[in-house]
Amino acid sequence: MFNPQRIGEQLETAVGELLAEAPLNSSQILVVGTSTSEVVGARIGTAGSAQAAETIYRVLSNARQKSEFHLAFQCCEHLNRALVVERTTAATFGLEEVSVIPVAKAGGSMAAYAYHQFSEPVMVEVIQADAGIDIGDTLIGMHLKRVAVPFRSDTVRSIGEAHLTMAYTRPKLIGGTRAVYTRE
């Protein structure tokens, strides 16, 4: 049964663990893909929930205020997995704006909710985020920088009924056996 308080607590714990492992700052982006249908126990794309979106947005917005990272919310495949970002995020990272407004049935409930909460929302198609949270197997990998490092919460495996996957990124290790990767 859908419990907004429980999903808020689950996500707050998971985000806290991710940020403890891979702290983000004002020069970095966290991409979020969410199936609110999966959160409430339905099949992806079938039962979007504005209430679940509101809870998830609140938790992520609070985390953003503390760490000052940028947020990007991925839409569903009906909008080619485009992303909702603040205009300042698009300008800071040189992202090309596209014209569309996400709605629950084309973009998804989470992206539609975020679009209406942001102060100056814009849509972009391509982003290279520094970390990501995937709630409900929405496939955010295309929006992460290389190299993505999977991260599992010690305590949270799902948000509501939706499977949780998180990742952060690191620079590529290049150079072979003679290369040095840490400063002495």
Structure description:
- By secondary structure, the protein is of the alpha+beta class.
- It has a single domain, classed as Hypothetical protein TT1679 (Rossmann fold).
- It has five helices and nine strands.
- Strands 1, 2, 3, 4, 5, 6, 7, 8 and 9 form a nine-stranded mixed beta sheet that branches.
- α1 runs parallel beside α3 (50-67) and α3 (50-67) packs across α5 (109-117).
- It is globular.
- The chain starts with a helix and ends in a 15-residue tail after the last strand.
- The mean pLDDT is 97.
- It comes from Ammoniphilus oxalaticus.
Characteristic terms for this protein:
UPF0340 protein BEP19_12580; DUF436; alpha+beta; 184 residues; 9 strands; Rossmann fold; 22% strand; nine-stranded mixed β-sheet
Major β-sheet, in short?
9 strands, mixed
Low-confidence stretches: none
Helix content: 25-40%
CATH superfamily label: Hypothetical protein TT1679
CATH first level: Alpha Beta
Helix and strand layout, with pairings?
Blueprint: H1 4-21, E1 29-34, H2 36-39, H3 50-67, E2 70-74, E3 83-86, H4 87-93, E4 97-98, H5 109-117, E5 121-124, E6 131-135, E7 148-151, E8 158-159, E9 162-169
Parallel strand pairs: 1-2, 1-6
Antiparallel strand pairs: 2-3, 3-5, 4-5, 6-9, 7-9, 8-9
